[in-house]
């Protein structure tokens, strides 16, 4: 998950949405996402639906 975030997030355009499917289902996924985006909450909006949607502001 961390490797995917490192490759995808830098290419996410403003308004782009990154959907994390297993955020609540797999603790390793949640840990990686939380660690990667820690301290960057001002740059992204996090919307919890059936999956986690991360939107670049």
TrEMBL record:
Name of protein: Macrocin O-methyltransferase
Gene3D superfamilies hit by this protein: Vaccinia Virus protein VP39
